[in-house]
Amino acid sequence: MPTKQFLTAAALACALFASLPLFAEPLAGQASAPAAMNITPNLMGQLAVFAPAAGLAQSVVPAKASIAAPVSKGTAAGWGAEDDDLDADGMPGTGVANNAVASLAGETSGLRKTLISLAMTLRDIRYVRGGRDPSTGFDCSGFVRYVFAHAVGLELPTNSASQFLAGLKVNRGDMKPGDLVFFRTAGSRGQGRISHVGIYIANGQFIHSPSRGKTVRVDSLDESYWSKRFAGAKRPDALARSS
């Protein structure tokens, strides 16, 4: 009986040994396997060279200070802090009609005409707080700064309050095309700080980017809202030298 069991066990062992190459052969690569069988080895080969650690290292979120909007040369940190959309109650919904816009006098200098001409081409561009380019929109100081930079190559300060501190003071009766007109729109009836700026055209009219929901347009200084908030006029250096 033990001899019979031994022979049976030996026969099973021999059968397993004889079949072993059949299982090992595909793993050793000695025979071609169907395409479907090669998917797993190839995929594993690709995964083996993938380095997730490097990818994670590149995706680390930078510190808050490092992702702040870049400040270009000559740009103050307060850029985009205009408050011209904070006290818009009572501001006229529309400006001066196209056919009522003042025309420039014949004696207006070429420099001033260039300024006004460029400013007028930007009419109907929407107001955007902090905006400084026609492709995105303008706030008041962004509009003024863009016109002066592209028309005469003059770089003005970055917001209405700092623009008010620059240039030559001009009496209302002596204003010329291209002079800057300033307003106190952030407080009650003109009692607040300088918060809005536009470019004077002629005959009491000025062009500006008014406030949220509006577009670049021409308004009149004689209109009640603007006359109550008018803070004065300034003449940028380039215009003062050309007068």
Beta-strand content estimate: 5-15%
CATH topology description of the largest domain: endopeptidase fold (from Nostoc punctiforme)
> Termini, distance in Å?
128 Å
Based on helices, strands and strand pairing, what is the structural class?
Answer: alpha+beta
Fill in the keyword field for this structure:
243 residues; alpha+beta; endopeptidase fold (from Nostoc punctiforme); 2 domains; six-stranded antiparallel beta sheet; two-stranded antiparallel ribbon; 8 helices; 8 strands
Kindly describe this structure.
The protein is of the alpha+beta class. It has 2 domains: about 1-55; about 100-240, endopeptidase fold (from Nostoc punctiforme), CATH 3.90.1720. It is about 35% helix and about 15% strand. It contains 8 helices and 8 strands. It has helices at about 1-30, 40-50, 50-60, 110-120, 140-150, 160-165, 225-230, 235-240, and strands at about 130-135, 135-140, 170, 180-185, 195-200, 205-210, 215-220, 230-235. A 6-stranded antiparallel β-sheet has the order 3-8-4-5-6-7. It has a two-stranded antiparallel sheet with strand order 1-2. A hairpin with a 2-residue loop joins strand 5 (about 195-200) and strand 6. Helix 4 packs across helix 5. The termini are far apart. Residues about 15-80 have low confidence and may be disordered.
